[in-house]
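In practice, a research group might receive sequence data for several interacting partners and want a quick structural hypothesis before committing to experiments. The following worked case mirrors that situation: the sequences arrive first, and a predicted assembly follows.
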Amino acid sequence: MNISIFNKAAIESFEQRYRATFINSLGGFKSLVIVGTKSLSNVANLAPFSSFFHIGAQPALFGLIFRPGTEERHTLSNIITRQQFTVNHVHSSIYVQGHQASARYPAGSSEFNATGLTEAYEDGIDAPFVQESRIRIGAVMREKIDIALNGTTLLLSEIVHVSMPSDCLQRDGFVDLEKAGTLTCSGLDSYHQTERLSRLTYAKPDSWPQAFNVE
Amino acid sequence: MNISIFNKAAIESFEQRYRATFINSLGGFKSLVIVGTKSLSNVANLAPFSSFFHIGAQPALFGLIFRPGTEERHTLSNIITRQQFTVNHVHSSIYVQGHQASARYPAGSSEFNATGLTEAYEDGIDAPFVQESRIRIGAVMREKIDIALNGTTLLLSEIVHVSMPSDCLQRDGFVDLEKAGTLTCSGLDSYHQTERLSRLTYAKPDSWPQAFNVE
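A structural hypothesis for the assembly, expressed as tokens:
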């Protein structure tokens, strides 16, 4: 098997778009969600994100990364203005629409209209959900951290609302994403279904983990 | 289809372990890597992480989250001491060993010995790689951010070294994780293979994205 090795100088010498594709896909599979927000003038906005990451369960915190000078900034400014937003999982019937929501539509137009996804509301959350999405999260912004190293923004938010198909929730609290058809993505544009190998028991020094199932 | 809805009060009332499982699995699929470090006394350390996330390509930055009071803290103190570390992708032949590396082994013992994974070194990186891993990253710590909201630590690091099977790198810079057998995970203990639906062309307002392939 041929191995390719790249050092720092080689990585830095990559052409800009090549490097973006390379580095973005290099880190492994990513969460795929569509974030729903509302502007001050009540325009509903959607944008796909692959940077959702878990931070902690108590409080229920997650992070999102916003790059400078992109469409994601509409989402960020809406969140800063209104505090609440939604996070919607993506399955195989809506991933093309989710991808399309990243196009640079004119300010004031809604990605719901442009993509055909359906605006929906749930009690207690003043932001639009994607009706077609099966696992839906309502969130409130908690802290904004500017990352000086490259000008991106890290937004920390709390999960305050969840809706999902009842049969996707297992007895121990595990959310069976595969049962919901939730996709994963890699790089900027690659979409993947998953197939479970197993859940493994908690690791202890004196034994090997075992596969287990919970319904 | 029955839908389960949870508001903030319901989420906060979950029993602690149930809530950790629920919130951790709720956010979608995650990157799965094994981080390799060395202590000041040259003990090689391994720990699995599901919190690797992409921050930017220029410089090539990523983040990792470290929870307080866990085995991950050995990894963090090693990185702070020695600055360099490795990030190793996980495929189906080594995911049980990777999971096992999260067990609380006594200080001073190496997870390489405990799990049977093989220590390997590459030019320019003073930290242990996992020889069985197919996509391997050498990294240097750049910034540590303490998240006051829950006591976790966000470590920002730069990718300075990459080795991978040559046939996993496509002409446009895209790293084909699926070809390398890289796994994804969900929650604390669920491991998954992937199957690509497609890559989609860059989204533009006046057309729908198309599936494409690059070799």
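Before designing any experiment, note the following. Helices of chain B lie at 8-13, 16-26, 72-82, 95-100, 111-115. The first strand of chain B starts at residue 3 and ends at 7.
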